[in-house]
Amino acid sequence: MAAGAFGQTQPVKKQAWSLISDALTDKNPDTRVQAVQSMGLIGVHEPYLSALEGMLEDKDVQVRVAAITSLVDMKNKKTAPALKRALADPVPEVSFAAAKALWVIRDPEGEDALISVLGKELKTSSGYFTKQKRDSLRLLQTPRPLLMFAFKTGIGFAPVPGLGEGVSSLQGILSDAGISGRAATALLLAPERDPRVEAALIDCLEDKEASVRAAACHALALRNKKSLEPQLIPLMEDKKPAVRMRAAAACLRLESIPAPAAKRPAAEAKK
To answer: Where are the domains of the chain?
Structure first.
């Protein structure tokens, strides 16, 4: 797949981050959610980490919950101060998500908060929601089997220091009511190192179904192969936010991975 307009006038890294940062301020909360979910793929780097932490102040509940999921996805104690601030969020779903996130990174305040939940000192869900609020919390209504699938699949990847496992992005794809079986299959096969799987995922980047394209971007990002970046660059122009955001995050992730060192000629190595 050719690089297209992207990558010709500016460095890919700058273009990718511009795409995501613009989406973080979009008026449509669904677009902001897609951007936040994708950022779990990038890793603990600046300015991405600070921007993601800033989304904990977003006015939309779903965006704040997604931001917490992406922060915990990084499994880095640098995120603890921001997560502790989220413990004070007025919406119980957000504060509970922050408590679980702190527990995952082994911060004592996370365990203390969960113990308070057990002791009924902290509510884990609001007592009454308007329809608008129910819609904003739909991410929390993802069927348990899909969430279990997301976490089990995420475990299949070898962890790379400083890079997230993409659980938030994975959950976002799976929570889409329109997800196809082929998209789920792309996610399921993502950890497989068989060359045929990689070739199939690259083909999926041109699939007519957006969920399949988004899943392919996600899966290819987690392969941590810088050589795949040219295949992902054109997807930053995709019509669907879920695809654009994951393609941009994938490029930023791959940009952070050093290029493999060139092998020295055998004759030179013997000197």
So the answer is: 12-256
